[in-house]
Write a sequence for this structure.
Protein backbone atom coordinates (compact mmCIF):
# COMPACT_ATOMS: atom_id res chain seq x y z
CA UNK A 1 0.00 0.00 0.00
CA UNK A 2 1.48 3.33 -1.07
CA UNK A 3 0.84 6.44 1.04
CA UNK A 4 0.42 9.70 -0.88
CA UNK A 5 -0.09 13.31 0.18
CA UNK A 6 -1.83 15.92 -1.96
CA UNK A 7 -0.47 19.46 -1.85
CA UNK A 8 -3.79 20.89 -3.04
CA UNK A 9 -6.01 22.65 -0.52
CA UNK A 10 -9.05 22.74 -2.85
CA UNK A 11 -11.80 20.30 -1.85
CA UNK A 12 -13.10 19.73 -5.37
CA UNK A 13 -9.59 19.06 -6.69
CA UNK A 14 -8.89 16.48 -4.00
CA UNK A 15 -12.23 14.75 -4.56
CA UNK A 16 -11.34 14.57 -8.27
CA UNK A 17 -7.95 13.13 -7.36
CA UNK A 18 -9.68 10.41 -5.34
CA UNK A 19 -11.75 9.52 -8.41
CA UNK A 20 -8.65 9.39 -10.62
CA UNK A 21 -6.91 7.06 -8.16
CA UNK A 22 -10.05 4.92 -7.94
CA UNK A 23 -9.88 4.41 -11.72
CA UNK A 24 -6.27 3.16 -11.47
CA UNK A 25 -5.19 -0.32 -10.38
CA UNK A 26 -2.87 0.75 -7.56
CA UNK A 27 -3.83 0.44 -3.90
CA UNK A 28 -3.07 3.68 -2.04
CA UNK A 29 -3.83 5.77 1.02
CA UNK A 30 -4.27 9.43 0.09
CA UNK A 31 -3.91 12.13 2.76
CA UNK A 32 -4.84 15.78 2.26
CA UNK A 33 -5.93 18.95 4.06
CA UNK A 34 -8.54 21.25 2.51
CA UNK A 35 -9.31 24.90 2.97
CA UNK A 36 -12.72 25.53 4.55
CA UNK A 37 -15.40 23.51 2.80
CA UNK A 38 -18.54 21.49 3.39
CA UNK A 39 -18.71 18.19 1.52
CA UNK A 40 -22.16 16.65 1.17
CA UNK A 41 -23.05 13.07 0.27
CA UNK A 42 -24.29 11.98 -3.14
CA UNK A 43 -27.91 11.58 -2.04
CA UNK A 44 -28.26 14.63 0.19
CA UNK A 45 -30.21 17.86 -0.26
CA UNK A 46 -27.72 20.68 0.27
CA UNK A 47 -30.16 23.17 1.80
CA UNK A 48 -31.29 20.61 4.37
CA UNK A 49 -27.73 19.91 5.51
CA UNK A 50 -25.86 23.20 5.11
CA UNK A 51 -26.33 26.79 6.24
CA UNK A 52 -25.74 28.08 2.71
CA UNK A 53 -26.01 31.76 3.65
CA UNK A 54 -23.39 31.37 6.39
CA UNK A 55 -21.09 29.49 4.04
CA UNK A 56 -21.38 32.14 1.32
CA UNK A 57 -20.72 34.93 3.82
CA UNK A 58 -17.63 33.15 5.18
CA UNK A 59 -16.22 31.87 1.87
CA UNK A 60 -16.80 28.22 2.75
CA UNK A 61 -16.92 26.10 -0.38
CA UNK A 62 -19.81 23.62 -0.69
CA UNK A 63 -19.17 20.57 -2.88
CA UNK A 64 -20.78 17.21 -3.49
CA UNK A 65 -18.92 13.90 -3.48
CA UNK A 66 -19.88 10.71 -5.33
CA UNK A 67 -20.07 8.54 -2.21
CA UNK A 68 -23.07 8.43 0.10
CA UNK A 69 -23.17 9.30 3.78
CA UNK A 70 -23.61 12.58 5.57
CA UNK A 71 -22.26 16.11 5.26
CA UNK A 72 -18.84 16.89 6.76
CA UNK A 73 -16.88 20.07 7.38
CA UNK A 74 -13.25 20.47 6.28
CA UNK A 75 -10.72 23.09 7.31
CA UNK A 76 -6.98 23.46 7.95
CA UNK A 77 -7.36 21.58 11.24
CA UNK A 78 -8.85 18.49 9.64
CA UNK A 79 -6.83 15.70 8.00
CA UNK A 80 -8.67 13.78 5.29
CA UNK A 81 -7.79 10.24 4.30
CA UNK A 82 -8.88 8.04 1.41
CA UNK A 83 -8.17 4.31 1.31
CA UNK A 84 -8.40 3.15 -2.29
CA UNK A 85 -8.05 -0.56 -2.95
CA UNK A 86 -9.32 -3.56 -4.87
CA UNK A 87 -12.71 -4.78 -3.73
CA UNK A 88 -12.85 -7.93 -1.56
CA UNK A 89 -15.69 -10.41 -1.94
CA UNK A 90 -17.89 -8.51 0.51
CA UNK A 91 -16.59 -4.92 0.32
CA UNK A 92 -19.22 -3.32 2.54
CA UNK A 93 -18.54 -5.77 5.37
CA UNK A 94 -14.84 -4.96 5.53
CA UNK A 95 -13.56 -2.78 8.36
CA UNK A 96 -11.75 -0.10 6.39
CA UNK A 97 -11.24 2.01 9.49
CA UNK A 98 -8.84 -0.60 10.92
CA UNK A 99 -5.61 1.04 9.62
CA UNK A 100 -6.68 4.48 10.87
CA UNK A 101 -7.76 3.18 14.28
CA UNK A 102 -4.51 1.21 14.53
CA UNK A 103 -2.49 4.32 13.70
CA UNK A 104 -4.34 6.40 16.29
CA UNK A 105 -3.88 3.66 18.90
CA UNK A 106 -0.19 3.64 18.03
CA UNK A 107 -0.11 7.37 18.81
CA UNK A 108 -1.73 6.75 22.19
CA UNK A 109 -5.36 7.56 21.35
CA UNK A 110 -7.96 5.03 22.52
CA UNK A 111 -9.92 5.19 19.26
CA UNK A 112 -12.59 2.66 18.28
CA UNK A 113 -14.90 2.15 15.30
CA UNK A 114 -18.62 2.81 15.65
CA UNK A 115 -21.56 1.08 13.98
CA UNK A 116 -21.71 3.53 11.06
CA UNK A 117 -17.99 3.51 10.27
CA UNK A 118 -17.28 6.56 12.42
CA UNK A 119 -14.25 6.64 14.71
CA UNK A 120 -14.80 7.68 18.31
CA UNK A 121 -12.84 8.31 21.50
CA UNK A 122 -14.82 7.69 24.70
CA UNK A 123 -17.98 7.77 22.62
CA UNK A 124 -17.23 11.16 21.04
CA UNK A 125 -16.76 11.31 17.28
CA UNK A 126 -13.40 12.35 15.83
CA UNK A 127 -13.89 10.93 12.33
CA UNK A 128 -16.76 10.45 9.90
CA UNK A 129 -16.52 8.31 6.77
CA UNK A 130 -18.20 7.29 3.54
CA UNK A 131 -17.50 4.74 0.83
CA UNK A 132 -18.28 3.65 -2.70
CA UNK A 133 -17.54 0.65 -4.92
CA UNK A 134 -16.87 0.99 -8.63
CA UNK A 135 -15.69 -1.63 -11.12
CA UNK A 136 -14.09 -3.87 -8.53
CA UNK A 137 -12.48 -1.00 -6.64
CA UNK A 138 -13.32 0.53 -3.25
CA UNK A 139 -13.00 4.15 -2.14
CA UNK A 140 -13.28 4.58 1.62
CA UNK A 141 -12.68 8.13 2.78
CA UNK A 142 -13.01 10.00 6.03
CA UNK A 143 -12.01 12.91 8.21
CA UNK A 144 -9.72 13.19 11.21
CA UNK A 145 -10.51 16.19 13.42
CA UNK A 146 -7.14 17.28 14.75
CA UNK A 147 -7.59 20.99 15.48
CA UNK A 148 -10.70 21.94 13.56
CA UNK A 149 -12.85 25.01 14.29
CA UNK A 150 -15.75 23.17 15.90
CA UNK A 151 -17.91 26.27 16.25
CA UNK A 152 -17.72 26.91 12.51
CA UNK A 153 -18.28 23.20 11.87
CA UNK A 154 -21.49 23.21 13.88
CA UNK A 155 -22.76 26.41 12.27
CA UNK A 156 -21.92 25.43 8.69
CA UNK A 157 -23.68 22.08 9.11
CA UNK A 158 -26.82 23.72 10.48
CA UNK A 159 -29.21 23.04 7.60
CA UNK A 160 -32.91 23.74 7.25
CA UNK A 161 -34.47 20.98 9.36
CA UNK A 162 -38.02 21.98 8.31
CA UNK A 163 -37.35 21.47 4.61
CA UNK A 164 -39.38 18.63 3.09
CA UNK A 165 -37.17 16.48 0.87
CA UNK A 166 -36.25 12.92 -0.03
CA UNK A 167 -32.51 13.27 0.49
CA UNK A 168 -30.47 11.34 3.04
CA UNK A 169 -30.22 13.12 6.38
CA UNK A 170 -26.90 13.44 8.20
CA UNK A 171 -26.65 11.78 11.61
CA UNK A 172 -25.34 14.49 13.93
CA UNK A 173 -23.03 13.47 16.76
CA UNK A 174 -20.99 15.18 19.41
CA UNK A 175 -17.46 15.74 18.07
CA UNK A 176 -14.06 16.63 19.49
CA UNK A 177 -10.52 17.32 18.30
CA UNK A 178 -7.56 14.98 18.65
CA UNK A 179 -4.98 17.65 19.47
CA UNK A 180 -5.77 17.79 23.23
CA UNK A 181 -5.26 14.01 23.35
CA UNK A 182 -1.85 14.04 21.68
CA UNK A 183 1.57 15.46 22.36
CA UNK A 184 1.65 16.83 18.80
CA UNK A 185 1.85 20.61 18.29
CA UNK A 186 0.42 21.19 14.82
CA UNK A 187 -0.98 19.70 11.64
CA UNK A 188 2.37 19.11 9.83
CA UNK A 189 3.59 17.04 12.79
CA UNK A 190 0.26 15.20 12.95
CA UNK A 191 0.52 14.33 9.25
CA UNK A 192 4.05 13.04 9.79
CA UNK A 193 2.97 10.96 12.80
CA UNK A 194 -0.03 9.43 11.00
CA UNK A 195 2.08 8.71 7.91
CA UNK A 196 4.73 6.96 10.00
CA UNK A 197 2.12 4.91 11.86
CA UNK A 198 0.35 3.88 8.64
CA UNK A 199 3.68 2.95 7.06
CA UNK A 200 4.34 0.70 10.06
CA UNK A 201 0.84 -0.81 9.82
CA UNK A 202 1.15 -1.75 6.17
CA UNK A 203 4.68 -3.08 6.66
CA UNK A 204 3.43 -5.76 9.06
Amino acid sequence: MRILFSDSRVAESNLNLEQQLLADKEEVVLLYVNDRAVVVGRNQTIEAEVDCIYCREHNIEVVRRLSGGGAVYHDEGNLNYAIICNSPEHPLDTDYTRPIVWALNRLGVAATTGSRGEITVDGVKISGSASMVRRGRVLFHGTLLFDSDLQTLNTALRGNTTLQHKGVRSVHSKVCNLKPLLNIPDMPHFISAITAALTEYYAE
